[in-house]
TrEMBL record, chains A, B:
It is found in: Nucleus. It comes from Callithrix jacchus. GO terms for molecular function: DNA-binding transcription factor activity, RNA polymerase II-specific; RNA polymerase II cis-regulatory region sequence-specific DNA binding. Residues 1-172 form the T-box domain. The gene is TBX18. GO terms for biological process: cell fate specification; morphogenesis of embryonic epithelium; positive regulation of DNA-templated transcription; somitogenesis. This is T-box transcription factor 18.
Length: 242, 242
DNA sequence: TAGTTAACACCTAGGTGGAAACTT
DNA sequence: AAGTTTCCACCTAGGTGTTAACTA
């Protein structure tokens, strides 16, 4: 995932659907992003792999993205797909825009937090998320990603360009193609290859970002409003992601 | 003020600052727009005046714009200038976008409402604002305006074009000027007139919209958190606007 | 050399009044 | 004739990867 000094959105954005909330209870929904391991990585071009390149850099100030619809009732949250597309990542450790601060060339795992309102009174973008009764965390292994300041891999670049509306200007059909190549590719029978690029189409794609497709929408199930506790959380998580 | 079927922002937008709230109490801030009188108007070009042209059209479904930061603590509200720039006006009585529905060619008065959270549980964009203890309404006479679907008056048009960033394309310095006029106006000594147009500069400006300048920021004072009642409201209002 | 930064062209998304077509 | 609607060029605001310059 690209990170910049000014802050960069994730693409694709994390999107989840939640069930099992108490419709009349108020909740905050928040997201943070935690290191997967204690390593720094480098991308080895000839083998198209990320390899360990030493230990992780020193920790950065923890940041929390509080979903802008927070707080809202369980009913409201459950009725919609919850999108984190406004969340931004930065490598600026002195960031004062409330963006999530990460190290480049490290592996990270996003987490979604569901926080009952009465447990979230001290919720803040610059404080760690509280834990305990009334607070649940969810994470999906397929959403692990590696941070970069510039793409290391042409397939990832291609995928982003083809999928992100804001990158339309770099698509093959755009002005980017030059002369002969443009003409050749304008023939339909020559085109089926990369225009519809998905992860399934590229065996052996390096895990700069793993299974971005799955980001498009995950379901979170809470057993039921009464058993809303860290324990039932892990059971639920296990059954959905194991 | 322009109103359209799809919904049009007000320009300038209503902006207020509030003091006297209980910093730790939660409030909704909302806006509605009420008829000034029971009349329909027409613009008489030769006299540059709005004149009564019969009785008002039949009432439209009442709508409320709930400020998107709602609910928030008194502290949060008092720290910022509260802007209603996302609010939209429409003449579509069947509108389903939650916009405020008005009749064209009528006079209206925006009202700002401060609603203590425990009094606003049934707050809805399609229901009238509750009244009683814990709910206060504020309105400023200089924010009265007349609705139109097309400007009736070249001075208003000019004012909007000069002040609204989104209308920059119609400014004199843009491509709009034609030949000679452009050349003439490019001389600095010929320019001081309308480029810095304000209401003060135009004596006798017709009240299609009255004192837009004052929209830029009004202060609302609540006597103090303890006397938060409709009665103290009207006293405060009187002292600030009388 | 490997990684980062800043400026940039090219997009999406949506807010302006103008002008002509349309309605009543 | 008077008012409304639709389409449009022209903006603001901001999200993309590219590129070349920069940095350690």
């Amino acid at each position: 995932m690209i990170i910049t000094k000014a802050g960069r959105r994730m693409f694709p954005a994390m999107r989840v659907k939640i069930s099992g909330l108490d419709p009349h209870q108020q909740y905050y929904i928040a997201m943070d992003i935690v290191p997967v391991d204690n390593k720094r990585y480098r991308y080895v071009y000839h083998s198209s792999k990320w390899m360990v390149a030493g230990n992780a850099d020193s920790p950065v100030p923890p940041r929390v993205y509080i979903h802008p619809d927070s707080p809202a009732s369980g009913e409201t949250w459950m009725r919609q797909v919850i999108s984190f597309d406004k969340l931004k990542l930065t490598n600026n450790e002195l960031d004062d825009q409330g963006h999530i601060i990460l190290h480049s060339m490290h592996k990270y795992q996003p987490r979604v937090h569901v926080i009952r309102k009465d447990c979230g009174d001290d919720l803040s973008p610059i404080k760690p998320i509280p834990s305990g009764e009334g607070v649940k965390a969810f994470s999906f292994p397929e959403t692990v990603f590696t941070t970069v300041t510039a793409y290391q891999n042409q397939q990832i670049t291609r995928l982003k360009i083809d999928r992100n509306p804001f990158a339309k200007g770099f698509r093959d059909s755009g002005r980017n193609r030059m002369g002969l190549e443009a003409l050749v590719e304008s023939y339909a029978f020559w085109r089926p290859s990369l225009r519809t690029l998905t992860f399934e189409d590229i065996p052996g794609i390096p895990k700069q970002e793993y299974a971005a497709r799955s980001f498009r929408g995950r379901d979170i199930f809470l057993a039921n409003p009464d058993s809303f506790s860290p324990h039932s959380l892990s059971r639920n998580l296990g059954s959905k992601d194991g």
